[in-house]
Amino acid sequence: MRYIAKDIPLWQVTIWDKKFNNVDKKWQPKTIKYKYLLSDELDSLRVDDGDVRILYTGKDVGFTTEELAGDRLSEGEIISIPWGGIPTVKYHKGKFVTGDNRIATSKDIDKLTNKYLYYFMRGNIHEIASYYRGASLKHPCMKDILKMTISYPSVQEQDKICGQFDVLEQIIEVRKQELQLLDDLIKARFVEMFGDPVSNSNGLPESTLPELGEFGRGISKHRPRNDPKLLGGDYPLIQTGDVANAGLYITSYSSTYSELGLKQSKMWDNGTLCITIAANIAKTSILKFDACFPDSIVGFNANEKTNNIFIHYWFSFFQAILESQAPESAQKNINLKTLSELKVIVPVKDKQDKFVEFIKQVDKSKVAVQKALDETQMLFDSLMQKYFG
């Protein structure tokens, strides 16, 4: 690919929303001002049928209306990064309201398009992230970001490259929607077969988890997973993030546990339902290997009245409720007593088994969709590496 411009610092080709500290005034002869809203102000504007984008600083996506936005409405073709928190890059063209983002636009779209600028910044998100600093809430050092260099071909070539990314992004989004629809289908089937589990609308028998099987916390003696003493042992170790991110099954783990005195009795069996009670509250997954875990995870193995996969999907209706009830603290958590007192519906076992068979059929479709999603994402990432790596 032939570059028209090569290794140009961003400050030469972009206009930002503010003049930044410790940045040479010659780097920012012009700014474009926007009106910034606090998170709760943005939430108050949010509606389901809006057509004005709400640019949160996080990954959340929301919309409002011109009427609700009022004089806080902005418009343009822009790229944004959050002023604080986890670095992400967003693109928007049209009307919007914004939180505390730093907002950029190309100085001359006849030379550098905003869409190409967006994909360049997205392709270099790891470098941008390295410029976010701070002890707790991290903020970007804008001087370092403005010093980043960009190379770009002709506008025609930029449009061609961006077109490839746009198509792949659309395919990725469709695949994600398909996975969500399959998850929604399972939930709908659950309600169809057993009624609303929160209100127990079908009046089914109820029991607590301790009454329905083996129920208990993981080991209380644990260290961070990168502790050298955890490496090289015989005991697979999982933690709350593994449970929260695994979906239905935990199929891999991050370390092994070799701490002196750990006994085989501390292991939970393949098929155990894992329930988080700290950080990612009431997230559940099912082990596909024998493993141990810390006391921030509760293990459950059902008796003859029910099965772990049924309980896993029952929990999906309660996760948000339990999370909202957790006391506010540096790390949210629920105690074992709260979990042990939950009333679980107990339909006849044959009916539970039919639901699990339905899940297995849907899972076959999910595996195919996930494979297609992974392949598309790999292609997207390889093109990012080709053009911006």
TrEMBL record:
The keyword DNA-binding appears for this protein: yes
One of the Pfam families matching this protein, by short name: Methylase_S
Keyword Plastid: no
Record keywords, A-Z: DNA-binding, Endonuclease, Hydrolase, Nuclease, Restriction system
Gene3D superfamilies hit by this protein: Bipartite methylase S protein, DNA methylase specificity domains
Type I restriction modification DNA specificity domain ranges (all copies): 73-180, 211-372
Gene Ontology molecular functions: DNA binding; endonuclease activity
SUPFAM superfamilies reported for this sequence: DNA methylase specificity domain
GO biological process: DNA restriction-modification system
Entry-linked InterPro entries: Restrct_endonuc_typeI_TRD, Restrct_endonuc_typeI_TRD_sf, Type-I_RS_S_subunit
Family of the protein in this entry: Belongs to the type-I restriction system S methylase family.
UniProt xrefs under PANTHER family: TYPE I RESTRICTION ENZYME MJAVIII SPECIFICITY SUBUNIT, TYPE-1 RESTRICTION ENZYME ECOKI SPECIFICITY PROTEIN
Protein's name in the database: Restriction endonuclease subunit S
Species: Wujia chipingensis
